[in-house]
Write a structure and sequence with these properties.
- It is found in: Endoplasmic reticulum.
- The protein has 717 residues and is of the alpha+beta class.
- It is built from 16 helices and 29 strands.
- A hairpin with a 5-residue loop joins β13 and β14.
- The longest helix is centred in the N-terminal third of the chain and has 21 residues, at 95-115.
- Residues 119-168, 180-197 and 405-477 have low confidence and may be disordered.
Length: 717
């Protein structure tokens, strides 16, 4: 067997012929002359799913960021210059892994090119220099540069080394303020720019940041043209960690950006360019000043020195029109420049520059200069938020997430006249859609997944073989009719509904990934193994056991239809005993699967594997701290009674059997009407063969009323 240069788990990224993207976990192996990937870590003489011969004609193409159901992956494409149709597309959830693979593959390509040099000639590296074309950058993208060689170039110019694939650079309308313009370029742009970007003066120091204001070289500045300001600070983190956090627009952003209220993806132009919607949270007299929002294009690149550049500029978009109740601000220029510094005391250090030139519009911006400056300083303080976030957390390399925008051109027409804010409506729709999506993030799909891959550069899908989506061994079928199931607690997908339940998005929970045994990494859980079909909310003067025997319950309805069900009965003790019962249903158990072994195993095995992951999205601070979000092995924390029926397994979980759990429960039960609680149930995976973990199911219960519980009519077996 050849020597392995590099190996590890990566993501296979592609698109089906129907246009939907997919991502699968695959084990990639790079050898001196071969790149291959497998469904599992290869054993002796195992045949790979796909291979590619690596020689001096190969190229590594950086395709940037791609979005898959709100999750972002960093995509690389390896292809042969003489046969571009044969390629392998791979991706990673964090940019460090993608860069490491890119470096390793390029080093193998370089070695082949050196070995092919005839008569002792040396290959000359062809690298892009910033002075060659102001419209191009030294970054990678999906399109090859105009400086790339033609296909037959290898024969005529043997001195050309592997090229860096150079993208089209930022859109023409986006000003790259990170570059120093020479005098000639400044003169060329004098008609469009009212100032030069070469001179800054220190305005003030605030929160450990230096705040600069641009020095203008004009006698008169129109009211509509605001001054550019930038904040400069040092963050003790790597450029990659900071970049990934900046690109995310999920709930994590609330923890470091005080001007962020809501953001979503409007359109993904390519791997380096996207159109975003951003709702600002500005605290300057909010009772009289209308909120501001933005629709802008975002471009990013990675430079050869390891720095990152993120550029912003406002742009109109048909799916992101002006919204009632908001003033659409205009972002003339802005973004981040993330540059590495020398480490100090063994800790990485990075300089972060954040520039904003924005016209907030409205009467406040035109007649109250204090309003403009106050809001700018609030936005620039995000650099201080970054610094404090990294200094107070050990989390690194969080999966980059960004909600996908609904069509705002149409949704804006349906806003209620009561003045309900746009971000609440869009956010509610996004969360509701996420329940229906229930997308699996890491899918062990069919071995022939490459048969259905579509090249990203193609506009129209090519004709391919008939799609045959082979499901994972434990993947549930989705043709179960859920309308025949019911419980006394109603289901409601509305974000603000009360005394109800809905299925929780599996990606809200992190479980052990495929490579957990080696790197202890956890991944979003993705699709559930079973469907949650009904929830009952019971009360009685005594503890309620074995609810699956109740005539007409969801478990018995499932049995009549030939389905298997798992009943989770969470028993809440007290002067009045309560039980919240969750009914999970699937077509059948897969023989040999972890779930089947759990269902048919003994109580000792079940107690050692049944796991609960709790979340409290809404509730008081003390409740959220008491409940936490740490996974818990239920069988070791409280008493669990397992009842195996012919077509079901019931798990009665006695919360009152634990002193600690009972204390937390006493705190929760008093404020239960103000809480939104999410719970995910799963079987813990302990061996590599059992990984990655999969959720049995997950539920979100909102603002439960104790008075809505009913006394069940339990009949004897």
């Amino acid at each position: 067997m050849s020597k392995v240069v590099y190996e590890g788990w990566m993501v296979r990224y592609g698109r089906r012929k129907i246009g939907r993207s997919y991502i699968h976990m695959r084990y990639f192996v790079l050898e001196p002359r071969l790149l291959a990937y497998y469904k599992k870590k290869p054993q002796d003489y195992q045949v790979p799913i796909k291979t590619m011969l690596i020689d001096g004609n190969c190229r590594v193409e950086d395709r940037g960021l791609k979005t898959h159901h709100g999750h972002m992956v960093y995509v690389l494409s390896v292809y042969n210059k003489k046969e571009k149709s044969h390629r392998i597309t791979m991706a990673a959830f964090n940019i460090q892994e993608a860069l490491m693979w890119k470096e390793k593959i390029e080093s193998v390509i370089d070695q082949h090119q050196e070995s092919q040099v005839p008569n002792g000639q040396q290959y000359v590296s062809f690298e892009y220099k910033s002075g060659m074309d102001t419209g191009r950058t030294a970054s990678s993208s999906e399109h090859e540069s105009q400086y790339s060689a033609p296909e037959d170039e290898e024969d005529s110019r043997r001195s050309l080394m592997r090229r860096t694939t150079i993208g089209n650079g930022p859109p023409e309308s986006v000003l790259d303020w990170t570059k120093e313009f020479d005098a000639e370029l400044a003169n060329q742009n004098s008609n469009n720019q009212a100032f030069s970007r070469k001179h800054w003066r220190l305005l003030q120091c605030q929160n450990g940041l230096r705040i600069f204001e641009e020095l203008l070289e004009v006698d008169y500045l129109p009211r509509s043209c605001s001054r550019a300001m930038k904040a400069v600070g040092v963050v003790e983190a790597t450029c990659e960690d900071i970049f990934e956090l900046l690109m995310s627009m999920d709930g994590t952003r609330y923890e470091w950006d005080c001007s962020f209220q809501y953001g979503s993806l409007v359109e993904e132009v390519d791997g380096h360019t996207a159109v975003l919607y951003h709702r600002l949270l500005l605290d300057w007299f909010p009772m009289i000043v209308w909120p501001r929002d933005l629709c802008y294009v975002r471009y990013w690149r990675r430079n050869d020195d390891g720095s990152y550049v993120v550029l912003f500029r406002s742009r109109e978009h048909e799916n992101c029109g002006p919204q009632p109740g908001c003033v659409r601000a205009h972002l003339e220029s802005g973004g981040y420049n993330i540059s590495p510094l020398k480490p100090r005391n063994g800790r990485p250090r990075t300089q972060v520059q954040h520039l904003i030139q924005i016209d907030l519009k409205g009467w406040g911006a035109g007649y109250l200069p204090a309003f403009q400056q106050h809001c700018l300083l609030q936005m620039l303080n995000s650099v201080a938020g970054l610094r404090e976030w990294f200094s107070q957390t050990d989390e690194r390399g969080l999966p980059t997430r960004i909600p996908v925008m609904v069509n705002m051109a149409s949704s804006s027409l349906s806003l209620s006249k009561s003045g309900k804010s746009l971000h609440q409506s869009a956010f509610s729709l996004d969360q509701t859609n996420s329940v229906n999506r229930n997308s699996v993030l890491m899918d062990e799909d069919s071995d022939d997944d490459d048969e259905f891959q579509i090249a990203e550069s193609e506009q129209e899908p090519e004709t391919s073989k008939t799609e045959n989506d082979v499901k994972r061994p434990e993947e549930p079928a989705h043709d179960i009719d859920l309308s025949c199931f019911s419980g006394n607690l109603k289901r409601n997908e509305n974000e603000n509904a009360r005394n109800c339940w809905r299925t929780s998005d599996g990606n809200n929970f992190k479980v052990r990934g495929k490579s957990f045994g080696g790197d202890k990494r956890k991944i979003p859980a993705g699709k559930h193994l079973m469907d949650l079909v009904a929830v009952d909310w019971f009360k009685d003067s005594k503890r309620i056991d074995h609810v699956a025997r109740r005539k007409g319950c969801a478990a018995q309805v499932a049995a009549e239809k030939g389905l298997f069900s798992m009943v989770v009965n969470v028993q809440v003790p007290g002067s009045t005993h309560y039980s919240m019962v969750f009914y999970f249903v699937m077509k059948e158990l897969v023989p040999g699967s972890l779930l089947q072994r759990f269902v048919d195993g003994d109580d000792e095995f079940r107690n050692s594997r049944l796991k609960l992951i709790p979340l409290v999205p809404k509730g008081s601070w003390i409740v959220r701290q008491s409940v936490g979000s740490t996974p818990c092995l239920l069988g070791k924390a409280v008493d669990c009674n397992y009842i195996r029926g012919p077509t079901y397994l019931e798990i009665d979980i006695d919360i009152g059997s634990s002193t600690v759990a009972n204390g937390v429960l006493g705190l929760v039960i008093g404020v239960i009407t103000s809480l939104v609680v999410e719970m995910a149930f799963l079987v813990q995976a302990n061996t590599p063969e059992e990984l990655p973990e999969r959720l049995i199911g997950a539920v979100r219960v909102s603002h439960i009323e104790l008075s809505s519980a009913i006394v069940p009519n339990l009949e004897s077996e």
